Amino acid sequence: MNESINITAYSLLGLLAKRPWSTYELVAFMERSVLNYILPRTRSQLYNEPKKLARLGLAHARVAGAGRKRTVYSITPEGRAALKAWLAGPGGAQKMEYLSLLKLYLTDCRDTTAVGERLAGMRREVLDTAREALAQIERIENTGVALEDTAPMASLATRLAVHHSKAQLAWLDELESYLADPPSADAAADWAMGHYRHSARQLRALIKRHGDT
Amino acid sequence: MNESINITAYSLLGLLAKRPWSTYELVAFMERSVLNYILPRTRSQLYNEPKKLARLGLAHARVAGAGRKRTVYSITPEGRAALKAWLAGPGGAQKMEYLSLLKLYLTDCRDTTAVGERLAGMRREVLDTAREALAQIERIENTGVALEDTAPMASLATRLAVHHSKAQLAWLDELESYLADPPSADAAADWAMGHYRHSARQLRALIKRHGDT
DNA sequence: GAGGTTTGGTCTAATTTGGACTAAGTTAGT
DNA sequence: ACTAACTTAGTCCAAATTAGACCAAACCTC
Q: Is residue B52 a contact partner of residue B2, using CB atoms and an 8 Å limit?
C-alpha cells in the first residue's frame, strides 16, 4: 500500500516549489501553459495527485474557503527534498503518438486522393497547434509573464514548440512533392530506398556535427 | 461487454491488411519499425489485441505449429471494411511527453551547473534517438526494403524523424547560448519576453506562409 | 549435456484516461 | 426579482494501458 509518487505528482510538486497553488490553478496551468505540450495529463489525475502529495507529507493542504470549497496546497520541506532528488535524476527521451501519421502510413499509397486529404488534414492540425501556441504567447505578453509563468525556462520550452512546428511544416512541404510525382508501382521500392538513403546521409551528418563526445 | 476496437488494434489490422502475420512478427514490427516512433505500445497490449480482433471476427487466427505454438492472423473481409472506415476518419494532432524537458523546465534557471548537465543529457538522448533511427534504416538497406517494410509511406514517415532530430538539435544549440550568457536575476523577465516575442514572430510567419487556406 | 539466447508468449497490479456527474457562484436578460 | 446559462471547482468510476515479472520450448555453442 506504499503509495509511490509519479511523474505527474512530481511536476505538480515542482510548481508548488515556486508558490502555493489551489488545485484548480494547478489544473488550469497544466492545461494551458507549455506544460500541456511537455506532459499532457487528464483533469482527473491532476485533481488526484495533490491529495496524494498531502497524504505523503510532501505538501500541505489548507481549505481556504469563503463559501465555495477551494483547497490550497503548499510544499513542505520534505517535498522540497523529494523534488530536488527527482530533478537530479535522469530524464528520458521524448515519446510521441501521432494518429494522423499512423493513418497516412497505413493508407494505400496509390490512393492519391486519400493521401492528399490526409496531408491537408495534417497541415491543418500543425497550423492549429501553431496558432494555439501563438495564442498562449499573446496571453502571456498581454498579461505580463509574471502572472502565470515567471520562469525564463518557460520561454525556452516554448521555443521548442516553434522549432517543432517549423520542422513539421518543412516535412509536409516535402511530402507534397510525393503527391506531385508519385512513384510508379514497380519503381516504388527504389523510390523508397532513395528516401532512406537521403535520411541516412542526413542522420550521419547530424550525428557527426553534433555528437563530438 | 461490447468490446470496442482501439487505435492499437486498428494499426495491427492495418498491418494484417498487407499480409498475414504471426503475433510475434506483429510485435517485433511494432517495436522495431518506424511505428514505434508513431505509436509506441507495450508488448502485453500488442499480444492482447490480435485476440480481440479474432473475437470480433475482424481477423482469423490459425495456430500454425510444427512443435511450438505460433498463432498466425489474417484479415477477414469484415476486418478490411472496418479498417477502411477507420482510415477514412479524422486523425489527430501529435501528443508528446518529454520528461527531460519537464525537468529542465522545473530546475531553477540560476543553477547553471544543473541546467548544463540537463542540456548535455538531452543532447545525448536526441543523438541516441538519431543513431537508433539510422540503425533502423541501415537494417532496411541491408536486408532490402521488401522484407519488412514495403510501403513507400514508411520511408516518408522516417523522414519526419529526421526533421525532428534536426529541429531538436537546432533548439539545443540555441539553448547553449543561454548557458553562455544567462540573464541576470532582475533582467530575467525582459529576457524571457524577448524570447516570447521572437517565438511569436516566427509563428506568425509560419502561419502566414503555410496557411493560405 | 550444460548453459545462454532467442522465440513466443501469459499474467497481474498499478497507472492513466475519458467522460459523466455535482453543485455552488456569477453574469445577463427580462 | 427570477431564471437561464456559464464558469468554477471539483468527484467518481469503468475501461484502457503500462510496466515488468514470469514461463517454457527450441536453438546454438562449447
A: no
Q: Which of residues 119-178 of B touch A (CB under 8 A)?
A: 121-131, 133-134, 137-138, 140-141, 145-146, 150-175, 178
CB B156 within 8 A of CB B34: no
Rounded Cα–Cα distance for residues A115 and A175 (Å) = 10
A93 domain-assigned: no
Residues of chain B with pLDDT under 70: 1-2, 65-68, 144-150, 212-213
* The predicted structure's pLDDT at residue B1: 41
Q: Is the pLDDT of residue A15 over 90?
A: yes
In chain A, how many domains are there? 3
| Percentage of chain A lying above the pLDDT 70 cut | 92
Euclidean distance between CA atoms A112 and B138, whole angstroms: 29
Specify the long-range contacts of residues A46-49, CB closer than 8 Å, at least 24 apart: A46/A8, A46/A12, A47/A23, A49/A6, A49/A8, A49/A9, A49/A12
Question: Quick one: A82 and A112 in the same domain?
Answer: no
Lowest mean pLDDT among A82-86, A194-198, B141-145, B203-207: B141-145
CA A116 to the chain's CA centroid: 27
Query: Can you give the pLDDT at residue A1?
Result: 41
- Span A34-46, pLDDT tens digits: 999 999 999 999 9
**Cα–chain center distance at A84:** 22
Closest residue to C24 (CA to C1') is: A68
Instruction: Please report how many Cα atoms fall inside a 13 Å half-sphere around the Cα of residue A187, on the Cβ side.
Output: 7
Give the minimum alpha-carbon distance from A2 to chain B in angstroms, rounded to a whole number: 24
End position of a domain, from candidates B25, B60, B88: B88
Chain A neighbors of B106, CB-CB under 8 A: 11, 14-15, 17, 83, 87, 153
Nearest in space to B183 (alpha carbons), one of A87, A153, A29, A78? A153
